[in-house]
Write a structure and sequence with these properties.
Blueprint: E1 3-9, H1 13-23, E2 31-37, E3 41-47, H2 50-59, E4 67-73, E5 88-89, E6 95-103, H3 106-115, H4 127-136, H5 141-151, E7 154-162, E8 169-174, E9 179-183, E10 186-190, E11 202-205, E12 211-214, E13 219-222, E14 228-229, E15 234-235, H6 240-244, H7 251-257, H8 259-267, H9 285-290, E16 293-298, H10 300-317, E17 321-325, H11 326-329, E18 340-346, H12 352-363, E19 367-372, H13 378-382, E20 385-388, H14 401-421, H15 426-446, H16 450-460, E21 465-470, H17 473-489, E22 492-497, E23 514-519, H18 525-536, E24 541-547, E25 559-563, H19 572-589
Parallel strand pairs: 16-17, 16-18, 18-19, 19-20, 21-22, 21-23, 23-24, 24-25
Antiparallel strand pairs: 1-4, 1-10, 2-3, 2-4, 5-6, 6-7, 7-8, 8-12, 9-10, 9-11, 11-15, 12-13, 13-14
The protein binds 6-O-phosphono-alpha-D-glucopyranose (G6P).
Length: 607
């Protein structure tokens, strides 16, 4: 995700901002910029590394200032470019804004501001914030910010400068991290602690919609009604390494815990009160109605997401779907025809085999829709349509939030297609949309299983083989769970369609073999109970993952993990979460390098 730094105090602002941004570089970014005050707002931005920004600043001569805001951008709305980099200024030049998050209603606000004479220069959602602030500005910065907050919807961490008030900075956050650093030399804002550790260890950790007014002498906090509030100071004892990981031991755990936020960012901007809005989709209703077949192509976890996608797509939009591993697809001389659609899934957007598969599909004249996390990546650029997952940068090699946001995007596409093709009843559609709205919150609930999964990992970490079984969507989850376990803990693990067990694999079950049974599909629940009985009879130890109400499992399994109830097609978003946690804790127990497993790369750009 993007990084924010802001400073007001006795020191020169430019080095403080650049230094703070440099400390956030590990999170990944594609462009950077700063605004400082020097007889007016001076904004300098550059696509590329921070060194490019520094060169540009030096090229324009030293800018002396004692306050400013800075940003490293990881593109969401609009490709990486100087123009789309932050800060974004109002057309009057009086307001400058840095922003992390997504303003969900930016299109409406842009239209409203356009009618009021505002012109936009970037493709970003952020620019509406500076223009809106300018529109409502009445001389009172805190009051104006309250009005702006009343109009914007979505997730935001904002740092704001107003040239009428060169002795103060403003900030606020909602569903996107922001903290305030306090020191004798001045005061700071930042999206993450590493940016400021060199300057201070004393922080205010902001709650949603707390407004911050910073001067060099002090910080005042207000609630949304404009009442002054008091907060405790949080003293940080972490070193820089722990701070980069948000206090977690590994990026993987940080990213697991970021899933509710990532899902919120991926889903909510695409949902209206009663429907789905996929603005980036250029496919016409006619094309969607005429699709005969969909080919989903991907590698690794993205392929597993594709398998879930097939179930969901076929269930709600009634289009036959084939799912292929990209390295197989590209060499199997696939038969594609005019009314087919190819959906490419890739977190990095750079996987060589997936890119080659995309080119094969295009060569055969088929439209390509990609689901990608990295804006401006090769796959994104070469596709006809791109839907970004907006999960933020993923640093751990084993994907977690990348995978679950891919699933959520597939739900949106499937439901959109179903609506256009008339294959879903309005009532069921509304139920599905409601389930999607609850997904981030329910994900946060499920992640509370962390302690329990750590206990189980401790107990079973020395297993030599683990079999993970499930049926239907639970089989797809089993594949992803097995890959996670293999990737980071190096335990031999196999995923099996539970009904297929008796055709061979059951011969490998002996006294003490660990079997994990995933049973969240209501209509297949009893079948899974029978499969668990079969392996128990051969001496297996069984951990079962099921939904609330699946008590019959308690009589057969050794341990039962309960997930919240959800309509069958959405269980895939939950059943994988305890397994991410289990794989993580097992790897930690075994002393493995969780974030950088042996022999693996985050982005496989070679065949
Ligand atoms: C690598 C990663 C996996 C990922 C796969 C596909 O193998 O380790 O976590 O699922 O590549 O990557 P992509 O970036 O295309 O989703």
């Amino acid at each position: 995700m993007c990084g924010i730094v802001g400073y007001i105090g006795n020191q020169e602002a430019v080095p403080v901002l650049l230094n703070g941004l440099a400390k956030l570089e590990y999170r990944g970014y594609d462009s950077a910029g700063i605004s400082v005050y020097n007889d007016g707002i001076c904004t300098i931005k550059a696509k590329g590394r921070l060194a490019m920004l520094s060169d540009k600043i030096n090229g324009e001569g030293a800018v002396s200032s004692h306050m400013g805001i800075g940003h490293t951008r990881w593109a969401t709305h609009g490709a990486p470019s100087d123009r789309n980099s932050h800060p974004h200024n109002s057309q009057s030049g009086k307001i400058s804004v840095v922003h992390n998050g997504i303003i969900e209603n930016y299109m409406e606000l842009k239209a409203f501001l356009g009618e009021n004479g505002y012109h936009f220069v970037s493709e970003t959602d952020t620019e509406v914030v500076s223009q809106l602030f300018d529109f409502y500005y009445d001389g009172d910065p805190v009051g104006t910010l309250r009005k702006v907050i009343g109009k914007i919807r979505g997730a935001y961490a904002l740092g704001i400068m107003c040239s009428d008030h060169p002795d103060s900075l403003l900030a606020v956050r909602k569903d996107s991290p922001l903290l305030v650093g306090l020191s004798k030399d001045g005061n700071y804002i930042a999206s993450d602690i590493p940016a400021l550790l060199e300057y201070t260890r004393d922080y205010y950790l902001l709650d949603d919609n707390e407004i911050v007014f910073l001067t060099k002498e002090g910080v005042t906090l207000y609630d949304l009604d404009g009442n002054q509030i008091q907060k405790d100071i949080f003293h940080v004892t972490w070193d820089i390494d722990a701070a980069e990981k948000g206090g977690y031991d590994y990026f993987m755990m940080k990213e697991i815990m970021e899933q509710p936020e990532a899902l919120r960012k991926t889903l909510l901007p695409r949902m209206t009160e009663d429907g789905i809005r996929l603005e980036a989709l250029s496919l016409t209703e006619e094309e969607i109605k005429n699709f005969n077949r969909i080919h989903i192509v991907a590698c690794g976890s993205a392929w597993h997401a594709g398998i879930v996608g097939r179930y969901v797509m076929e269930e709600v939009s009634r289009i036959p779907v084939e799912v292929d591993i990209a390295s197989e697809f590209r060499y199997r001389n696939p038969i594609l025809s005019k009314n087919d659609l190819c959906i490419i899934i890739s977190q990095s957007g750079e996987t060589a085999d997936t890119l080659a598969a995309l080119r094969e599909a295009k060569k055969q004249g088929v439209k390509v829709l990609s689901i990608v996390n990295v804006v401006g990546s090769s796959i994104a650029r070469e596709s006809d349509d791109v839907l970004y997952t907006w999960a933020g940068p993923e640093i751990a090699v084993a994907t977690t939030k990348g995978y679950t946001t891919q699933l959520s995007m597939l739900y949106l596409v499937a439901l959109h297609f179903a609506k256009v093709r008339g294959t879903i009843e309005e009532e069921r559609l509304q139920e599905c949309l409601q389930e999607l709205r609850l997904l981030p919150k329910k994900t946060a609930e499920v992640l509370k299983l962390d302690g329990k999964m750590a206990e189980l990992a401790k107990k079973y970490a020395q297993s030599e083989d683990v079999f993970i079984i499930g049926r239907g969507l639970d089989y797809a989850a089993a594949m992803e769970a097995s890959l996670k376990l293999k990737e980071i803990s190096y335990i031999h693990s196999e995923a099996y369609a539970a009904g297929e067990l008796k055709h061979g694999t059951i011969s490998l079950i002996e006294e003490g073999t660990l079997v994990i049974a995933i049973a969240t599909q209501e209509r297949l629940f009893e079948k899974l109970v029978s499969n668990v009985k079969e392996v128990k009879a051969r001496g297996a130890k069984v951990i079962a993952i099921t939904t609330q109400g699946g008590c019959a499992m308690e009589q057969v399994a050794d341990e039962v993990i309960y997930l919240p109830k959800a309509a069958d097609i959405f269980t895939s978003s939950y059943n994988v979460l305890p397994m991410q946690l289990f794989a993580y804790h097992t790897a930690v127990e075994r002393g493995c390098d969780v974030d950088k497993p042996r022999n693996l790369a985050k982005s496989v750009t070679v065949e």
